[in-house]
Amino acid sequence: MQLPLGDDPRTETLRALHASLIARFGRIVRPPEKRREPVWVLVQGVIGARSKTAVSNASTDFLLEHYGSWDAVAKAPLEELTAHLARQTFPEQSARRLKDCLLAIAEKRGKLDLSLLGDMPTAAAMEWLETLPGVARKNSAGVMNTSTFDRSALVIDGHHRRVMQRMGLVPARADTTRAYDELMPVLPPEWSAQDMDEHHLLVKKLGQTYCRPSRPDCTACLARGICQTGRGLSP
Ligand code: SF4
Q1: What is the pLDDT of residues 92-120, one digit of tens each?
Q2: pTM score of the predicted model
Q3: Which long-range contacts (CB under 8 A, 24 or more apart) does 101-109 make?
């Protein structure tokens, strides 16, 4: 039987987690001027595999400034793009994915522009984005949530997924798409798109500090009392 919206016990756990994260780390609110246009966010995600956010942000800004338009980036030789993406963790792969993705948008749309997504429901827009080469759920949610679209969609990166798995809020082997499908219906219904953005940034911080990939610091962790893994440890 489907529970009414907000009645899943995970909803209250997520509320409690969010409050504890704010109490520990403070607010992380993305100011409106930091919301970038949708193609910028898409490009930042496509080139960003295993790279630090600041590096991918700088590379994305550089590409647009250097070439002057996303059309010109799409037409740039692959070797040239690879050289410009030297600071990314996987420069060749990033360049190839970027070129394939931009050319696919140009082919589908006739121009490098994602404004059509603004007229579509969020789920349909994400589905459209995920047909593009190199675009998976993290990136499609990022385009809808953190760009000027400002839509309700939870971004889930590797840190976020790991924390949710360990807390028992998604199945232990859930991939990003499964984690998204599990979490979206149980997010507190009062959360806005900005709340979801802040929640992701705070959970990511938890994953970078206490809930690290190896040797999580459960003893000191703010989430221990509401975490399946943390509660199972001896005091
Ligand atoms: S209690 Fe441990 S497993 Fe749970 S979120 Fe904190 S660090 Fe991660």
Answers
A1: 999 999 999 999 999 999 999 999 999 99
A2: 0.94
A3: 101/42, 101/43, 101/46, 101/132, 101/133, 101/134, 101/135, 102/43, 102/70, 102/73, 102/74, 103/74, 104/132, 104/133, 105/39, 105/132, 106/71, 106/74
Fold topology of 36-146: Endonuclease III; domain 1 (1.10.340)
Q: How far is the CA of 203 from the centre of ligand 1 (A)?
A: 11
pLDDT of residue 176: 97
Is the beta carbon of 102 within 6 A of some atom in ligand 1? no
164 lines ligand 1 (CB under 6 A): no
The class (CATH top level) of 9-29+155-231 is mainly alpha
Q: Distance, CA 75 to ligand 1 centroid (Å)?
A: 46
24 lines ligand 1 (CB under 6 A): no
Instruction: Show me where the domains of the chain are located.
Output: 9-29+155-231, 36-146
